[in-house]
Amino acid sequence: MTSAAAARAYAESVVRQEWAAAGRTPRDEDVIDLLLVVSELVTNAIRHGDGLAGFEARTTAEGVRIAVHDNSEIVPEVAYGPGPLPVGHHGNGYGWPLIIRLARDIVITRRPEGGKTVSVLVPMREAPPHRAGRP
Fold this sequence. Notes:
With 135 residues, the chain is an alpha+beta fold. It has helices spanning 4-21, 28-48, 95-102; strands spanning 52-59, 63-70, 104-110, 116-123.
């Protein structure tokens, strides 16, 4: 994986394939949340983490577990913030607050080979069944 776009496409394909195999359809809004979180995590790794070192996406009973590996061992203090969106853009990004709002079980670990992994769970729900004759 070399870009946020490639990571988004991969994460969405994992969800759609695995849910389809189980005869399920994820809610569109949850897929959008997933794509936003993936975009922010991968972009942060590229911009602030000395480059993207790896990307993983796997479904769980609760949603999709995303793991983004980068080459920096620095864990920004904002990573553990409360998640309010900034009022103005004064050098602070919107990425972490957005991740904190949309994801659960955020874990940051140092990798033995160097760098760190940011792992999050993005909750996913099944779309309501489509009823014939109703929009």
